Amino acid sequence: MIPAVALSAAASFLAVALVVVLAFSFLIVIHEAGHFAVARACGMRVERFSVGYGPVVWSTRRGETEYAISILPFGGYVKIAGMAPDEEIAPGDPAAYSNQPAWRRFLVILTGPAMNYVGAVLLAWAMIATTGIREPDPAPAVGEVVAGSAAERAGLREGDRIVAVDGAPVGSWAALVSAVQARPSRPVRLDVERGGAPLALTAVPDAIGGRGRLGLGPSMRLVRAPPAAALGRGLALTNARAGDILAGLGQMVSRKQQAELRGPVGIAQEMAKSARAGLAPFLSMVWFISIVLALFNLLPIPALDGGRLVFLCYEIVTRRRVDEKVESTVHLVGFIAIFGLILLTVFGDLARLFHR
């Protein structure tokens, strides 16, 4: 006989897993819906809009488009006539992607990532107007303390407020970060307020990329606003978070910050963790992933939308189309590289999971 507690835990796990899969699939479907809508608006023939991958379990046809639900519910895809490199298309077929002007093909590709970004802005607006959205507090207040970090070794705790570094006052989180970064591998005196009482601690920031790092996260605060004001605030917060992501990516490329790659397993873990924490944290995580999807797909990497946009920009500027075989080969190499990177991140995620 299976205990009721075990059944409850299993049901809870399945519910969380279902929510995570549906949320991630929704983000991908929004992306593909952008490609679909603009392709149709440009007069292109969309042969299939599938929610999920693999064998089709249900479908219906409206006009020239088959709308399908496939067996693997991880995302979806849009099949536009003339988009596959080896597809046989009549030279005079005006509804084929390959026969459309470059600027129209550019819009079709661009709108996928753009829809993820617009979706993030609208989600931020909805959260600010209802449940609220969590954003970093600009004050030098401690949120997360990374296990094994210099901060943990120094005795810092969540809720502490750091008021000075080596006697110099810090009035913001940005000022705290700058002060710590300037002191790698050096003992630092931290004047802290804990529960209203002053406390002096000594930390030795880890040296990462030549900069000091304590291993802290800022405190988070909940932001709410009326619906009219929430839209502007949602756009501003989304833009700010996108800027943070791009800045972090720039630091990783310049090796000023150590890269910690997360793959599908790691992302699913974080989404599941936020789902268990409540509606607001979960929606905040979905919002963040939507921004990441938009930015990642715009990177000028072959096989991604950004890589395709590079070829289209070349065509628009020079009025010469890149040889189709050359472009498809470049995208194939990019796809293999991305797939290999995903496999590496999956192994890394699993290693972290089983060594906890």
UniProtKB/TrEMBL annotation:
Its main location: membrane. It is a multi-pass membrane protein. Its cofactor is Zn(2+). It comes from the Bacteria. The chain crosses the membrane at residues 106-128, 279-299, 330-351. PROSITE patterns: PDZ. GO terms for molecular function: metallopeptidase activity. SMART domains: PDZ. It holds the Pfam family Peptidase_M50. It is found in: Membrane. Keywords: Hydrolase, Membrane, Metal-binding, Metalloprotease, Protease, Transmembrane, Transmembrane helix, Zinc. The keyword Ligase does not apply. InterPro entries: PDZ, PDZ_6, PDZ_sf, Pept_M50_Zn, Peptidase_M50. Its EC number is 3.4.24.-. Residues 142-170 form the PDZ domain. Belongs to the peptidase M50B family. This is Zinc metalloprotease.
